[in-house]
């Protein structure tokens, strides 16, 4: 199978490198995800939707939405959901989904203050160099009383599983990606960025420091993924 690009970001997460890396994985992004996670991605998205709990008539921002695969799940509820991302390639790959899509950077969102009932971000916060700024931007565009849900890779909580998982992420995952992905080098970055990412407690502290109230988290799949939640004070 022909590969389209070989572009990977480094851990300083320069925005232009991150955006072109995702342009390169876009063509087979959804398939690669499902293969690499053995279908767990569907469970994580379902749990994210349950945590966001969108209601018909609400306006929901799915940030770092990529191809819109996470947005579609949220839209099942009848809420109006918009997918925002700064990779034109990812947005283009998801265009057939017929979702409202906006090109924009998470650190300078093209939305007015207090626009959304809920903001959610799945597997994207980890890719943003200044994620404290992104958390503050998400707070700015959320209505008072509105909610935040972050779905992100995290730190497994069972010690023996932690070791096996680290081996899988660092060694096996890039090998599988070489067969499935349109930009396998991106999955070396994925492995490194997961290893480098703060654990549940440290991320929770950063979310609270950005101004979100009532920050809590729960582990999915033994802490492979964590859902962090918070809300914007006011009514
Ligand atoms: C791993 S994908 C996640 C896509 C989707 N949310 C999902 O659950 O599969 C991460 C996405 O975040 C986007 N992203 C990374 N940094 C961003 C930024 N600063 N602003 C907007 N989007 C960003 C990338 O372009 C990419 O599409």
Fraction in beta strands: 15-25%
Counted beta strands: 7
Helix/strand order: HHHEHEHEEHEHHHEE
Alpha-beta classification: alpha/beta
Attached small molecules: S-adenosylmethionine
The CATH superfamily bears the name Vaccinia Virus protein VP39
The average pLDDT is 93
User: What is the tally of helical segments?
Assistant: 9
How many structural domains can be distinguished in the coordinates? Answer: 1
Q: Which class in CATH terms?
A: Alpha Beta
Instruction: Tell me the CATH topology.
Output: Rossmann fold
Task: Enumerate the strands of the largest sheet in spatial order, edge to edge or round the barrel.
Answer: 3-2-1-4-5-7-6
**Straight-line N-to-C gap:** 53 Å
Strand count, sense and closure of the main sheet?
Answer: 7 strands, mixed
What gyration radius follows from the Cα positions, in whole Å? Answer: 17 Å
CATH architecture: 3-Layer(aba) Sandwich
Shape: globular
Low-confidence stretches: none
């Amino acid at each position: 199978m022909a590969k389209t690009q070989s572009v990977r970001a480094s851990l300083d997460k320069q925005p232009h490198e991150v955006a072109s890396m995702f342009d390169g994985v876009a063509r087979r992004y959804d398939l690669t995800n499902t293969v690499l996670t053995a279908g767990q991605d569907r469970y994580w998205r379902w749990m994210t939707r349950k945590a966001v709990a969108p209601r018909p008539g609400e306006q929901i921002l799915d940030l770092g939405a990529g191809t819109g695969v996470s947005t579609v799940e949220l839209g099942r509820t009848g809420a109006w959901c918009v997918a925002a991302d700064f990779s034109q390639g990812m947005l283009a790959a998801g265009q057939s989904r017929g979702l409202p899509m906006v090109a924009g950077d998470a650190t300078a969102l093209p939305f007015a203050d207090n626009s959304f009932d809920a903001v959610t971000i799945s597997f994207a916060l980890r890719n943003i160099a200044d994620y404290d700024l992104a958390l503050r931007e998400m707070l700015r565009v959320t209505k008072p009383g509105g909610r935040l849900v972050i779905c992100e890779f995290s730190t497994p909580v069972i010690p023996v599983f932690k070791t096996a998982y680290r081996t899988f992420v660092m060694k096996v995952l890039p090998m599988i990606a070489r067969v499935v992905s349109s930009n396998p080098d991106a999955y070396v970055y994925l492995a490194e960025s997961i290893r480098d990412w703060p654990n549940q407690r440290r991320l929770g502290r950063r979310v609270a420091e950005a101004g979100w109230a009532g920050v809590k988290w729960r582990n999915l799949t033994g802490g492979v993924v964590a859902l962090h939640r918070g809300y914007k004070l006011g009514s």
